[in-house]
Amino acid sequence: MKNVLSALLAPQRHEPAAIAGASIGFQSLAISACATSSLMLELETWPKPGLVSHIDCGSHDDMNAETFRTSALAIQPYFESLARAGSEGCKMGRLRVIGIDAERAMLAATDGINTHRGAIFGIGLLCAAAGARADGHVAGNLSLGTTVSRLWGDDILDGPMPLHSHGGKARRRFGAGGARDEAALGFPTVYQVGLPTLRQARAEFPDHPEAVRVQTCFALIAALEDTNILHRGGQRGLRYARNAARAWLQEGGIAHPRWRERAQSIHQDFISRWLSPGGSADLLAMALFVDTQERRPSDG
């Protein structure tokens, strides 16, 4: 008994590899939790023109907020796997396999409804980049977007084209760049539109986080060649969507005293036209994720 107690009370020695493995596991779990939180925050934003939220179903009759919550929880373990794969220096082929598994889990959880395919691709790559950066595969001050482009950009462009996705059909029909180009280039719309809008709006309205997210969503709709809108409304629908979002922003955005009423009116117009800017919703979630992962003290 004395020998047993001595062994239990003795200082524990941990091998460096075991400590490193535990650290990587904790980091991957934290990254995946951040990704899921970003998806939930995107959902809890209203009004977003044509999009599902905790208030209504937007331009969709096959999904609601609970569908999105179920989906987000189902794919969270795969965000963790992607972060770990990035920390292990995995190539795009391995990331793609994890992404396919995540999509299967999403479809199983939602009875075949595509809630988060774009987010699995975009936020999934950013999770892998966060893992790679945390484990020193790239410089610690390198942005996640640049990390994606540097490590996997060529393979993203050279990878198989999805034949049956709405975005893929819009790319082929209208020649739009879509999510693949956005990712391969390091998510320029996130970094040039989403993040600056998010941070400026938060600095001006620090006590209104949902309004800040609405402002960011409208800015992304105004800027993005959204293949989901192209699929549903063609070039005419895309022109309407971008012009409506730009007009709302030019009239003051959330600084306007009746901003929510005006945003809700545009939301209803999108519904009547069956438009849903799913690409912009994905980029909003990505901007929220990147903002948290790359937050500086000066950002507030």
Low confidence ranges: 1-20
In N-to-C order, the SSE pattern is HHHHHHHHHHHHH
Radius of gyration, whole Å: 21 Å
Largest sheet: none
N- to C-terminal distance: 56 Å
Give the number of helices: 13
Approximate strand percentage: under 5%
Count of domains: 1
Average residue pLDDT: 89
- Give the helix proportion (percent range): over 70%
Regarding quaternary structure, what we see is: single chain
Task: Give the structural class.
Answer: mainly alpha
Tertiary shape: globular
Count of DSSP strands: 0
Question: Gist?
Answer:
This protein is mainly α and about 300 residues long.
Question: Which structural traits does this protein have?
Answer:
disordered N terminus
